[in-house]
Specification:
about 350 residues, alpha/beta, Rossmann fold, four-stranded parallel beta sheet, 12 helices, about 15% strand
């Protein structure tokens, strides 16, 4: 599984370094992510062109929001792309903390980078260090979650975002269809409320639920992306609401934690669970029929896309025109396509 091992593509021998890629990650374990990864030797002419412009490439990943394994996919993809492009990948660990990521960004803002890509834990939480980077002429790329309400005014290069509202809608609809009823109790386990991705998934959930007046939402307590917290919530809810039929969780880690609580309560035949992110264990659970659905949050494409954009900016400068917003698409994972999405994720293609 990605996140539990280093991807085979990342184990190639070291060659001449072209630039540095800094990534601030939220994961607590970075043993398989060394500080410096030398890039694969590319065409000599291309390397010379890169070396003229690329000195230090910076990528800052999100601190506390994406589940551990899906963030590992983004990290592994960024390292793999760095090797292909002759870029060293450096990972920072945000430790699931907005405050820790803020400290990291304040430190990064004092250093020289060709670009910085940020996967923020909360909207409007890092404006000062981001402005410091932009004021120094360092391009900033926003990944997955909004850095600010006004990204154009802030001056970021672009925003790479999955369609969180769509993902929330699709998984919620799949849950309702699987229950085969329009009158039942459902639990809505949210992510971190400061996260614009969680906010979008919540809007998608409610947009669907509003069409079914007989469906009662009995709880919307945030699990904050934390599996232990989610397990505690669900253990209590299954006792307080013995007739609950379904649950929508904002990510797969929380969905799998809820599933464990359902199994422990002996209610696998009663309660249907769906999640978001399309991480490997969730795809496998969908294929086995344990989760009804998940949706692909294409973290690999988002991180890989940020590196491509930064690489182009570092080597071509203002000649490269980058749109202010780029939609990163995913898909709904069901029993028919789960194996294919598992394979794509395992090979850093989503």
């Amino acid at each position: 599984m990605l996140g539990d091992r280093q991807h085979p593509a990342l184990g190639a021998g070291a060659h001449r370094r072209v630039g540095n890629l800094l990534q601030v990650d939220h994961m607590g374990d970075t043993q398989d992510a060394p500080d410096h990864l030398a890039g694969c030797k590319a065409d000599r002419v291309a390397q010379q062109r890169q070396q003229e412009r690329a000195a230090e490439l910076g990528v800052v990943g999100r601190a506390a929001l994406a589940p551990k394994r899906i963030e590992a996919r983004g990290r592994d993809t960024s390292q793999f792309m760095g090797r292909l492009l002759g870029i060293d990948v450096v990972n920072y660990d945000g430790e699931f903390s907005v405050e820790k990521q803020l400290r990291d960004l304040e430190e990064i803002a004092t250093q020289q980078w060709d670009f910085v890509a940020i996967h923020p834990a909360a909207v409007n939480a890092y404006l000062d260090p981001v402005r410091a980077l932009i004021d120094r002429g360092i391009p900033v790329i926003d990944m997955d979650t909004r850095l600010a309400d006004d990204l154009v005014g802030l001056g970021v290069v672009t925003f790479l975002e999955p369609d969180n509202l769509w993902m929330g809608e699709q998984v919620t609809q799949a849950i309702i269809e699987a229950v085969q009823s329009q009158s039942f109790e459902i639990v809505h386990t949210q992510g971190q409320l400061t996260h614009t991705g969680a906010q979008g998934r919540a809007r998608g959930f409610h947009k669907v639920i509003e069409r079914y007046p007989g469906i009662r939402v009995v709880d919307e307590t945030p699990g904050n992306w934390d599996t232990d917290e989610t397990s505690t919530i669900w253990d209590d809810l299954l006792e307080r609401y013995p007739n609950v039929r379904a649950g929508f969780c904002h990510n797969d880690d929380m969905a799998l934690a809820a599933l464990r609580s359902v199994r422990k309560a002996g209610k696998l035949d009663q309660v249907i669970i769906g999640g978001v992110d399309g991480m490997q264990p969730a795809c496998a659970a969908v294929e086995r029929g344990e989760l009804v659905a998940t949706a692909i949050n294409p973290t690999g494409r988002i991180h890989g896309g940020a590196i491509w954009i930064g690489h182009f900016l570092a080597t071509r400068g203002k000649l490269e025109s980058v749109p202010k917003f780029i939609r990163m698409d995913g898909g709904i994972v069901n029993s028919e396509n789960a194996a294919g999405y598992y394979w794509l994720g395992d090979h850093l293609l989503i």
